[in-house]
Amino acid sequence: MERRRDPAPDGPGDTLRSVRSVLVVIRTMTDWNRLVDVLAAIQSDRRIAIHFVIDSGSRFAAGLRGYLSSIGITPLSWARAKARHFDLVLAAHANCRMAELSGPRVLLPHGAGYSRIVPWATGDDTSPAGMARAQIVGVDGSLPRVICLSHQAQHDQLRSACREAGDRGVVIGDPTFDRMDANKSRRARYRRALGVGDRRTLVVLTSTWGRHSTVGIDDTLAHRLVAQLPSDEFRVALVLHPNVWFRHTMWTIRRAFKDPLDAGMMIIPPESGWQAVLLAADVVIGDHGSVAFYGAALGTPFLLAATGLAELDQRSPRSLLPSVATRLDPDGDLAAQVRAVIARHDPGPITAVTDLTLGRPGESLAILQRELYQVLDLLPAGRPRTLAFPDPKPERGDEPTAHLVAARVRPDGHAIELTRYPAILRDHRRPDDRTELCTVVENSEVDQRQRESADVLVNADTATERNATAWIKRILDRYPGAGMAVASTKTDCLIGLRDGTRLLATSTSRLDPAHVAAAVHGWLVEGRAEPTATTLHVCLGPNRWSMSIRPLRYPGRSP
């Protein structure tokens, strides 16, 4: 076979030669996420030059060019791409404009199968996006060489939507899900990267785009989840569809979720590891979007927050999810619902539905490679390698420095169970929750409203007992609403009550003064205890520890 010099090869050095050229067409960040999984079938073959072009015009494409530039890709202009012939044109979206590009086209699903009705994109209100005739048939009447399907049942969808393209459908399975399934062994690694380890429950809240999505129907659900799930037991990660990020700008997203971010929530940028986060999840809460669908398909406990039935093809498996998934009651006890779906988890009914979309499990990349090389008229250089997902890189806010604390003292008076919630989200707690809470505020808290509402004030920065004593007196004088102040020394914690009592807390392990403050306040107030010498056993989320408490000064003495 004659080899030809490609004018813009994709690879190192000026001497790299290729015999085939591939054009990858990208319209949105969602396309890119899908194509990254697919390109593994060809990207290590040095005989193939890979070029990129942005199919501009989508309202969700803002920032796409900048992102591609950040990872070293300079796309061709549309005019330049139109002027050349390619041996393969690969895209994860469909529209008639792609017929302007010269070369056999291979179309991939935009997400998990074909299910969403988007009339403004398809030109009708019955065909799912990616299968509408107006998207498949070019302006010149041409058809794609291959339309990739994820399940055999989608052949009927394709024939119904575009009869003349019926014989172009090929079932390849789902490369994204297969890659996720292969990465399950890295779950512990991903959890470490997210800071949840094996002792916290990771709740992943997902949302597709549009008014029928999780955040579209309830834009404060994330706030209420973080407000109602105990901080030391749970961690929440929010995964938004790339269209939400690129339609509303990253600044707007961060502003909208600033309070839950500063209360401990993580938000996963669209290019930074949502697949790894799903693999790390203990519970997935979501809607009719692909991310939630994949989470349910992995067998993870799943709560359905929004059905999206108003915009789903009723023939698609996603429309069946509401009949088998546990529905989230957004106004109910969110913590109880999360615990219940874990305790009663049976993945069978849900995976029976998701399997109707995810055909040919474990085979997709090999099948796709075969199809692509047939179009390229080349023999594959070797079997494609399944790639690991990189560690997720979540965005975080400031660590919370004010907590609402519930305390339950056991009957013996020497053991206490603490439950903490972020004080910044107190307005998002359940209105009918009558739990008695005290407010523990650290000295690094800058919001004066939090400091003035404190029952206990904490300083982790003092070093000597003398400095700690002076700080306690000064802070109790400044904030008359507080009944207790706690300051750390080099090895212990000094506790000051408003009546002049001083206590010293010691332990064989390093004491966190905020934890000490919550425990001692609960012991004295909820346990109706006298400030005498004792050993107190503390349960705080998954943590267990003990400390000795002894009086130093008594009521009526000056501090």
Quick recap:
The protein is α/β, with parallel strands linked by helices and 559 residues long. It has 22 helices and 22 strands.
Question: What can you see in these coordinates?
Answer:
The structure is a single chain. With 559 residues, the protein is of the alpha/beta class. The chain contains 22 helices and 22 strands. The strands form three sheets. A nine-stranded mixed β-barrel has the order 14-15-21-22-20-19-18-17-16. It has a seven-stranded mixed β-sheet with strand order 12-11-10-7-8-9-13, with helices on both faces. Helix 20 links the parallel strand 16 and strand 17. Helix 8 crosses helix 14, helix 11 packs across helix 12 and helix 15 packs across helix 18. The chain is elongated. The N and C termini lie far apart (92 Å). The N terminus is likely disordered.
Sum up the structure in keywords.
nine-stranded mixed β-barrel, seven-stranded mixed sheet, 30% helix, disordered N terminus, 22 helices, alpha/beta, elongated, 559 residues, 20% strand
- Gyration radius, rounded: 29 Å
How many runs of DSSP E, i.e. beta strands? Answer: 22
Q: Determine the oligomeric state from the structure.
A: single chain
CA-based shape: elongated
**Largest beta sheet: what is the strand line-up?**
14-15-21-22-20-19-18-17-16
Largest sheet: 9 strands, mixed, barrel
Beta-strand portion reads: 15-25%
Structural class category: alpha/beta
**What portion of residues is helical?**
25-40%
The overall average pLDDT, rounded, is: 90
